[in-house]
Amino acid sequence: MSLPYTAEMMESIKKVEAGRAARIGFEPRRMTADEKTALLQAFHPDYNLDSFEEIKVGPNAGQKAPKELVEILQGESRIKGMDLDLTNPDYDVDVLVIGGGGAGASAAIEANEAGANVMIVTKLRIGDANTMMAEGGIQAADKENDSPAQHYLDVMGGGHFANVPELVEKLVCDGPIAINWLDKLGVLFDKDEDGRMVTTHGGGTSRKRMHAAADYSGAEIMRTLRDEVINRQIPVVDFTAAIEIIKDTDGKAAGAVLMNMETNEILIARAKTVVIATGGAGRMHYQGFPTSNHYGATADGLVMAYRAGAPLLYQDTLQYHPTGVAFPSQIYGALVTEKVRSMGAMFVNAEGEVFMHPLETRDVAASGIIRECKERGKGVHTPVADGIWLDTPMIDMIHGEGTLEKRLPGMLRMYLRCGIDMRKVPIVIYPTLHYQNGGIKVAVNGMSEVENLYVAGEAIGGIHGRNRLMGNSLLDIIVFGRNAGQQAGAKCKEVELKELTLSHVDDYSKMLADAGIEPSVVSPKLLPDYRPEGVTRLI
Predict the structure, then answer these.
(1) Does an H or E element contain 39, and which?
(2) β strands within 383-525, DSSP E
(3) In this structure, are residues 74 and 512 in contact, taking their beta carbons and an 8 Å threshold?
(4) The pLDDT value given to residue 539
(5) H or E stretch including 180?
(6) Which end of the chain is flanked by fewer CB atoms within 10 Å, N or C?
(7) What letters, b where the CB count within 10 A reaches 16 and e where it falls short, cover 176-202?
(8) Which residues partner with 433 through β-bridges?
(9) What gap in Å lies between CA 459 and CA 312, rounded to an integer?
(10) Has residue 537 got a pLDDT over 60?
(11) At 136, is the pLDDT very low, low, confident or very high (cuts 50, 70, 90)?
């Protein structure tokens, strides 16, 4: 198998190798707060004002959001012009969970535990979600030298103190409970010979609190949650997307309009409470960035909740993971887990220079890489895209031969399939669109400002402020997924539904017209469209 690196890349690798021995035991200087702020303002995509627009209607009118998000928030409803009969629903349940990832599964399990009649509806299959894509691990302060208070400080600092404090408190205090719950369900966490969970550092963390299952933590968690859903015989309606929230005449969430993704058949689900667990927005490809996200990550929940009257929070901030694959093309944009850096791999530019600490927070690290490539001209040129080296051979040099293969088996296999042995040569990385920091505004009980409409997972805004730390996404889908299920499962017992209505959708359409906005797209988007311009069908 021949290495696919160009001659220019191989010459650059010689410079990387020349300084490798001197980097063992060397820790680059951490940036000061002022240096971080200046770097972010100059290079982070969230500060690229040309890529944002003002939202003209709805609860967040007057605020900015990415142009691509504004377009779908102000899009035309998929049910426009339809005469829908809401009096004879196809499904009638206590709790409707929209989304089949980790947050949705956790919510459904807990609602079922509360005795509610719960159903999951998901536009692909249960488990087809960003949860499956998560590699590095899940944070929780459950070791002797750690505490939820210390975890809280790390989360707040990582989020630039823009986080909603009550949500962070819930996240960190329930963290150890979440780990114990997953362990008892059967998640195969990495453990030492004494049965204690192995924990490591992540970017921006002051303690080793990252629990992992090799480098497929999300897949292992999702496997376990999916099995629990199946074992409990919770109904799952797959390949069926929610396209609008239904309310009752009191203005409370009361179900959803569904669309079969294969036949386009429209179905009605009535529910006493609704949980939105639709995940992120990576497949919107904000600012043209590649993404590490699952195929269905198109911000559906934000659109539906917003039209129903639920405000968003921090919709203008996204996370660009610093280590996305920049080469080769087969895996362009895929995630290279932060665990690679927590085990010792460093950022090295084309000249063989270490230019920043490998465990700065993700927004700072991403900005530093962008600066190295775009301002300093020290990026590694590849046939696909420019990037910088992540010096992965350092891992076995530091920890002993075989460590990378044992701790990062999935990552190793991914690169080996492309002819690259990351144990022997460094890999080229560049920031990839990874996480939706903002989302729907919720209270600590998980309810949005629309009564009986709960939110879980990446669709929530406020937990992570303006930047998320590694491992807190898998934690929040469990903590806030379980929370939403518990709360919705309890609340449904006291709900008396009034007549169902979609008048809010018509009201929103009128607001658009009154604002002089002619929708250019139909939303929610549901799936990305990668067809070449002008092509309506691929043979």
Answers:
(1) helix 33-43
(2) 388-390, 427-436, 439-441, 453-455, 460-461, 500-501, 522-523
(3) yes
(4) 44
(5) helix 175-185
(6) C
(7) bebbebbeeeebebbeeeeeebebbbb
(8) 291, 320
(9) 10
(10) no
(11) confident
Q: What is the pLDDT of residues 30-68, one digit of tens each?
A: 999 999 999 999 999 999 999 999 999 999 999 999 999
At residue 15, what is the residue type? K
Reported pTM: 0.94
Confidence of residue 538 (pLDDT cuts 50, 70, 90): very low
Statement: residue 226 has pLDDT above 70 = yes
Lowest mean pLDDT across 316-320, 522-526, 534-538: 534-538
Residues 6+ apart with CB under 8 A from 262: 239
At 318, give phi and psi (nearest 5°): -125, 160
Dihedral, CA atoms, 389, 393, 398, 404, nearest 10 degrees? 110
Buried b (16+ CB within 10 A) or exposed e, 342-378: bbbbbbbbbebebbbbbbbbbbbbbbbbbbbbeeeeb
Task: Return left, alpha or beta for 279; rule: phi > 0 is left, psi -120 to 50 is alpha, else beta.
Answer: left
Q: Are 245 and 79 in contact (CB under 8 A)?
A: no
Enumerate the active-site residues: 321, 341
In degrees and rounded to multiples of 5, residue 433 shows phi and psi of -65, 120
Q: 3-class DSSP state for residue 81?
A: coil
| Four-residue CA torsion sign, 499, 106, 361, 396 | negative
Measured CA to CA in angstroms, residue 123 lies from 91, 101, 481 at distances of: 16, 11, 18
- For residue 434, give Cα distances in angstroms to 195, 289, 290, 456, 532: 33, 10, 9, 18, 24
